[in-house]
Design goal:
It is a single chain. By secondary structure, the chain is mostly helical. The chain has one domain: Ammonium transporter AmtB like domains (Ammonium transporter fold, Orthogonal Bundle). It has helices at 17-45, 51-78, 107-129, 135-158, 178-196, 212-231, 239-267, 272-286, 295-319, 328-349, 360-392, 400-405, 407-412; strands at residues 101-102, 105-106. Strands 1-2 form a two-stranded antiparallel ribbon. The longest helix is centred in the last third of the chain and has 33 residues, at 360-392.
């Protein structure tokens, strides 16, 4: 993703209406991923008595993260600062005007495009604690997590921080969020699920998703929105955006079929929830590599994503015995990390724009460094935030009777529905 630049005057930079139109479109597509895409995808996977709770979580997070991005998030993540965090010049977007430019399109568009990334990242974590986390602690967790984890990592990778500063040979490759979005959210999801404890009946007596149809509708929206997520990260309507869109689609289709055939072999039937979960795995895995690989690389990434993420779900559930309810870590965390590692080799060997280091091994070292730093920060911060919330909010898990009866009625006073 192109780094944030200081605002420039229209007198020195000519507005490109094509790039502007594309970035506005990409912004709408990325927001569409969360609302309603992710909300419906997650909502269909839970029991019907909790569907409105999931929708409420996603919608509330979208509103909270939007305001937080305006207050300080954008400034700390994407304006000039130290090696570790951005500056304070754009608190409350105080220096943003209608004429402010980011390259050859309005900076206002860049602000909201990046805002949609800040929205979906904590929203992904919702899948780890559905059906059992209190509403107020959820809101506080997301606010603190965005400031302590997402904002610094975003700055390190995209804003000019220590992972993106210096010559190309020292820069981490994360085109659209394998580290910034998926690795951080996946790590937080796993830790939070462990600290929160499993749902009743985990792992063998959980009820199946209440609405596979809703799951598929939400997943289809995610697929469409992901074109804005990855292709929009080129920050221009150019060849990079076109290739990013193509490889995104190829990886998603390949991972979907791979997951479906593995599940078919193991269970005897091809499942709808399975094929769409494979799609999400393929999208998450191609995300960091979408600006560096060609079609052949996307085929391989999609296939590996379908295999690895499928079996990662079983490892988390049955080996680690962690109730990451909607497989956030196995799909997003593992997928994002996998794609971030694979780009070290595939960007150089299977077409695309190549890699930034002199050798794949050198680039792999840089990629691992970025992953480890981001994951450690996310784990430590998540543990600290949860500990604080457990002390100040009288626990973060809902009482047993509310969990049994469902959160729709007990927390929001409304009754869910099935699609």
């Amino acid at each position: 993703m192109i780094h944030s630049l200081a605002s420039l005057s229209l007198a020195t930079v000519q507005l490109d209406t094509g790039n502007t139109a594309w970035m506005i479109t990409a912004t709408a597509l990325v927001l569409f991923m969360t609302l309603p895409g992710l909300a419906l995808f997650y909502g269909g996977l839970v029991q019907s008595k909790n569907v409105l709770s999931v929708l409420m979580h996603c919608f509330t997070i979208a509103c909270l993260m939007s305001l937080l991005w305006v207050v300080c998030g954008y400034s700390l993540a994407l304006t000039e600062g130290s090696k570790w965090i951005g500056g304070t010049s754009q608190f409350f977007l105080g220096e943003l005007t209608e004429e402010s430019m980011k390259d050859d399109f309005p900076e206002s568009v860049w602000v909201i495009f990046q805002m949609t990334f800040a929205i979906i990242t904590p929203a992904l974590i919702v899948g780890a604690f559905v059906e059992r986390m209190k509403f107020v602690p959820m809101m506080i967790f997301c606010v603190l997590w965005l400031l302590i984890v997402y904002v610094p990592v975003c700055y390190w990778v995209w804003g000019g921080g220590w992972l993106s500063d210096g010559p190309d040979s020292t820069k981490v490759i994360d085109f659209a969020g394998g580290i910034v979005v998926h690795a951080t959210a996946g790590a937080a999801a796993l830790v939070l699920a462990k600290m929160l404890g499993p749902r009743k009946g985990f792992p063998d007596k959980l009820k199946p998703p209440h609405s596979p149809g809703m799951v598929m509708i939400g997943a289809a929206m995610l697929w469409v929105g992901w074109f804005g997520f990855n292709a929009g990260s080129a920050a221009a309507a150019n060849n990079d955006a076109g290739m990013a869109m193509l490889v995104t689609h190829i990886s998603a289709a390949t991972a979907s079929l791979t997951w479906m055939f593995i599940e078919w072999k193991k269970t005897g039937k091809p499942g709808l929830v399975g094929i769409v979960t494979g799609m999400v795995a393929g999208l998450a895995t191609i995300t960091p590599a979408s600006g560096s690989v060609g079609p052949q690389g996307a085929l391989l990434i999609g296939f590996v994503a379908g295999v690895v993420c499928y079996f990662a779900c079983g490892v988390v559930r049955h080996t680690l015995k962690i109730d990451d309810s909607l497989d956030v870590f196995a799909v997003h965390g593992v997928g994002g990390i996998l794609g971030t590692l694979m780009v070290s080799y595939l960007g150089n060997s299977l077409g695309g724009q190549g890699i930034n280091a002199e050798t794949p091994v050198a680039q792999l070292t840089i990629q691992v460094t970025g992953i480890v730093a981001a994951v450690i920060l996310s784990i430590v911060a998540t543990v600290a935030i949860v500990k604080i919330l457990q002390l100040t909010c009288k626990g973060i898990r809902v009482p047993e009777d509310e969990e049994i009866n469902g959160l729709d009625q007990s927390h929001h006073g409304e009754k869910g529905y099935s699609l």
